[in-house]
Amino acid sequence: MTRTFVVGLDGASWRLLDPWIAAGDLPNLAALRAEHTWAETESCLPPVTFPNWKCYSAGKDPGGLGVFWFEHIDLEAERIDVAKGGDFKTAELWDYLSDDGQTPGVVNMPTMYPPRDIGGPVVAGGPDAVQGEYRSIDSGYAAPEGLEDELQELFDYRVHPDPLLSSNEERGAEVDAILDAMESRFEVALHLLEENELDFVHVTLFYLNVLQHFFWDDEPTKRAWELVDEHLGELAAMDDLNLVLMSDHGSGPTTTEFYINEWLAEHGYQAHERTVEDFFRPLGLTRENLLGVAKKAGVVDLLAKTVPESVQQLVPQSAGAKRARKLEAIDLANTRAVASGQGPIYLLPGTPESVRDQLIEDLRAVEDSEGKVFDGVYRGEEVYSGAYVDEGPEVVVDMRDGVHVNDGIGGGQIQTAPDRWAAENTRNGIFLASGPDFASVGEIEQISITDMAPTILAAHGVDIPTDMVGEVLPIHAEDPDVGERDPIDIGARGEGTSEEVADRLQQLGYME
Predict the structure, then answer these.
(1) Distance, CA of 427 to CA of 61 (rounded, Å)
(2) What is the β-pairing status of strands 200-205 and 142-143?
(3) Contact 253, 417 (CB under 8 A)
(4) Tens digit of pLDDT per residue, the chain (512 long)?
(5) DSSP 8-state class, residue 438
(6) Alpha-carbon span 14 to 17, nearest angstrom
(7) Are 191 and 152 in contact (CB under 8 A)?
(8) Which residues 6+ apart lie within 8 Å of 91 measured at CB?
(9) Where in this protein does the record put region Disordered (predicted)?
């Protein structure tokens, strides 16, 4: 059976790549697209890292995963927790490959920390494999035992680039560190493929999208894509290897920042209370400003170790109160709705259905100078399916391309110019399949991100789990002889540390 190598390109979009392909800057990617099968993809809502990497690997939308964004909002319990890898309640395509007697490997896949047994090597990656504020992790990120020592000895492996990029003004060492990290991801994945005789390997380039967020199509991002293209040429030249390229979502230039909780307050769906942010912000004291000063002084690690987390959290963020601090800024007794960033909106228990109907109608009417702010506004059950729909948001917005839906509370403005990111996530990513098990069809119609797992399983002759909502794409060289099978129960998962995950996401701009 042919081996498969999947390259996960975080935030990749044909919108970004087409001009470089046309100019001859990415010759290997151009050749792959010209000679094989490719498509634009549609991510699940919201189009973000958590949950879309799992939508790909599990073949399910968030209703089948139990994770709907980077945070869990439980208004009945009056708490907000940061989502972790162990919160995803699902088996993935590598579990089914392993159950079939094949050996998979996963490198740098978000949502895989702490690593678990999949019957092959696992190297957890960003953004969730962390050990403390702004610091990387030195152990506990790989399985089986001994793999970390091997990676350290052969590749001087780092889970996260250091220094970590946190501003679009940082174009030197921070960018070089990301390129070095990307290089090592390819080296490790190829090493594991050959030395462990893997049947399947997946590698994610998570920090590729960090570059896109901060620089969009500027020189640092282009350097990264030229590095990717070089490695794609090497992979495409390997015999008896299926090569699959995919992304968790797409990206595009950010044009505006829309503060969804400020909008909810302005329109009577949310009531606010004064917090420490209201006193610090007029002084220009924010976590972003302090981080910049600490990085220039070289004392980030020292401060992270010596300043208590409770004190760190008192310093406001430029975008307002986030995560659990949102609840401190909200008068829940007089509130109907609370939003996460980039899409999900939760209603207080007992809120009448008529209020949800009115909220949806009001959101659909929101406009600015470019037209409707949202491409769609939906009830949660309209876009999600599976066992965990009831744990999800009651309302979900689909951001117009270029709109960053920000959940910060306390800034006082509903819409502003872009804050930190030059590029925002979009729903339209990429997919490309080449190799002996795939036909050369050319461009096909848009596919769902949930179609990838069943399509890869079919290429490996593995029956498709009945709880996958994706379809097997008609792109195989021969009709796959596969049927259906019962899902695997992977059991309890490790928890990780939510505040440390949140700190890493905040520095990168994912949770401001």
Answers:
(1) 13
(2) unpaired
(3) no
(4) 799 999 999 999 999 999 999 999 999 999 999 999 999 999 999 999 999 999 999 999 999 999 999 999 999 999 999 998 889 989 999 999 999 999 999 999 999 998 999 999 999 987 887 754 434 578 899 999 999 999 999 999 999 998 888 888 888 999 999 999 999 999 999 999 999 999 999 999 999 999 999 999 999 999 999 999 999 999 999 999 999 999 999 999 999 999 999 999 999 999 999 765 555 555 455 554 555 555 455 555 555 556 555 555 555 555 678 777 899 999 999 999 999 999 999 999 999 999 999 999 999 999 999 999 999 999 999 999 999 999 999 999 999 999 999 999 987 899 999 988 899 999 999 999 999 999 999 999 999 999 999 999 999 999 999 999 999 999 999 999 999 999 999 875 545 445 555 555 555 656 55
(5) B
(6) 5
(7) no
(8) 58, 465, 487, 488, 489, 490
(9) 478-500
Instruction: Name every residue whose Cβ is closer than 8 Å to that of residue 292 and which is 6 or more positions away in sequence.
Output: 166, 167
Contact criterion met (CB below 8 Å) for 67 and 475: no
| Residue indicated by tokens 């080296």 | 187
Q: Which residues contact 210 (CB under 8 A, 6 or more apart)?
A: 165, 178, 508
Query: Which amino acid is residue 35, in one-letter code?
Result: E
Q: Bridge partners of 399?
A: 374
Q: Which residues contact 99 (CB under 8 A, 6 or more apart)?
A: 119, 488
According to DSSP, the residues that pair with 425 across neighbouring strands are 251
What CA dihedral angle connects 15, 18, 23 and 29, to 10 degrees? 130
What is the rounded CA–CA span in Å between residue 106 and residue 8? 11
**What tokens does 358 get?**
């009115």
For residue 489 the two structure tokens come to 């129960």
Tokens of 33: 């697209």
The rounded distance, in Å, linking the Cα atoms of 95 and 433 is 21
d(CA 339, CA 326): 10
